[in-house]
Write a structure and sequence with these properties.
Strand order of the largest sheet: 10-9-8-5-4-13
CATH superfamily of the largest domain: Glycosidases
Keywords: Hydrolase, Signal
Helix content: 25-40%
GO molecular function, one term: hydrolase activity
CATH class of the largest domain: Alpha Beta
Number of strands: 21
Protein name: Glycoside hydrolase family 140 protein
CATH topology of the largest domain: TIM Barrel
Distance between the termini: 55 Å
CATH architecture of the largest domain: Alpha-Beta Barrel
Number of domains: 2
Amino acid sequence: MKKLVFIFFFLGSLVTGFAQVNGPIKLSENKRFLAQYDGSPFFWMADTAWELFHRTDRAEAEYYLDTRVSQGFNVVQAVALAELDGLNSPNSYGEMPFSSITPLAFNEKYWEHVDYIIDLAAQKGIHIALLPTWGDKLYKDSWGMGPEIFNEENAYTYGKWIGARYAGKKNLIWVLGGDRNPRKDADDVEVWNQMAKGIQSSAKTDNPILMTFHPQPNRPAGSSTWFHQEDWLDFNMQQTGHCPNQPTYRIISHDYGLNPTKPTIDGEPLYEEHPNCFNAKELGYSNPDDIRRIMYWNVFAGGAGQTYGCHAVWQMFTLDRQPINATLRPWKVSLDLPMANQVKHLKNLMLSKPYFTRIPDDDMVISKQEDDEHFVIATRDTEGSYAMVYFPTGKSVEVDFSKMKNRTLKANWYDPRTGVSFPYSGTELVKGKNNITPPSSGKGQDWVLVVE
């Protein structure tokens, strides 16, 4: 019996080991994408669980992580000093992050819970995009609970402390900001720079770090507006917001064209079960069709991945808590919504072809287009070995395949709803102009044509 128990334990450890994070994420050689520690592609497929550390106990955190792993997520965005009264409202074990604000005195028991969840995520193959603080701790703006505690001096001190605490973790990406844009007539930019420098000062040479900035919606771009030239900003992040009718690909394209080259990611798009434009009464709630369209648009425009979010999940809403912005149901129920189970199809599609040579190519679609929900977008690799064209509503367009490597082309239709492929059966494709009609059309009838 002892031998059997040992064998079972050993095999179980092996199974867990295959999934666990073994090294930090880094930039690809061409600075367009992210890569695993061994150099293989890493497609950022994240979920926003902002209140994970603040509002879940250990069993709930494991349930959440297990569910997201099964759905194909590999990153979770969460906040150490949480948005929802994170400095005055205790975590699930009655602990608050500080025993004193002035000066900052850290409550070890609170941070041990954060440690536990970060380590648990690593065991399950999940990277944590860690926000040291939500932005309302710098300034509250017209909303937010605060209190405002950070300035240039203590931002550096806090950054150095939290950077040192997690310097050895292999599954961390640092995210400054937290839904705040620096103000024009304030020292906000320098406060964030100091926090970043504090984190950098504690980094270990054998465990390099990645860092970005999570803004509020901003046009024409997000983090690059203030920090693109900073050495601590390794990749750009946008928040494209919670309205379904925005040409989000324009924001990704803006950052894609900047110098120096840095990856770009939409870190907060329209959430599932979120009131459209925060107006549930008149505009209703988001639907999977709009969310899916935004995701494929962004990635085809050059994004190095995509973040998903669910309105109930980010706030870990339960029936005994005050809902934020008309939440529909408890977070555990909302974990299993349609788009949460469809995001893996986007990740699988992008990883199915040569990854680091992929570029956006708007010129492939030669039909005249408007910036509306019908906008067709294309991407291909630099070698011309493949191309992908995304049709958000099945609209027929003329597409130019003259940049393909070979004259003989084959193609498949890819269903973003199911991940199923089947052969293209229209008029034979040529290395040149082609009129393409998807299998079906209308809202929610989106398709990807994959040409080789």
